[in-house]
């Protein structure tokens, strides 16, 4: 109710950036409530608003959100495309926080497609990025991160895991 009121006020006063921000927050609330159709509609509205603003960080997070919706629907190709688009926007914006979320999404998508070497490489690069920027795994993301690593380790022997992880770390040096 408060977000809907904030949206109404922002729309009344004509702040495109404010409308985009509130719309994005409403989309996240819709995702939390399990309302994927509403979340998708709101995220698609955000795409237009952030494009109008030229806000590549906003675009990165919207594409990440769309990737999550694709993942929930078992649309691995769609999820991969959205996470890759998110990573591209994050790179363009030079935003490591947005890049971290995109890499995490790509890594989880690789797990879902039974591509553990790729998942380990992506998570290795994510670990490098986090160490370079001092960014920790967010408290609310720890359980999912731990599950992802366990799923990767269950599918690879130690040597293969280490090799793929280190390859991911080396990607940051290039």
Structural key phrases:
9 helices; 0% strand; globular; mainly alpha; 174 residues
Detailed description of the structure:
The chain is mainly α. It is 83% helix and 0% strand. The protein is built from nine helices and no strands. The protein has helices at 2-13, 16-32, 36-53, 56-72, 76-93, 96-112, 116-133, 142-155, 158-171. Helix 6 (96-112) crosses helix 8 (142-155) and helix 7 packs across helix 9 (158-171). The longest helix is centred in the first third of the chain and has 18 residues, at 36-53. The chain is globular, with a radius of gyration of 17 Å. The mean pLDDT is 92.
Strand tally: 0
Roughly how many Å is the radius of gyration? 17 Å
> What overall form do the CA principal axes indicate?
globular
Strand content: under 5%
What class do helices, strands and sheet pairing give?
Answer: mainly alpha
Count of helical stretches: 9
Quaternary structure classification: single chain
Give unreliable regions as ranges.
none
Query: What's the overall average pLDDT, rounded?
Result: 92
Helix content: over 70%
How far from one another are the termini?
47 Å
Order of helices and strands: HHHHHHHHH
Major sheet details: none
In short, what is this structure?
The protein is an all-alpha fold and 174 residues long.
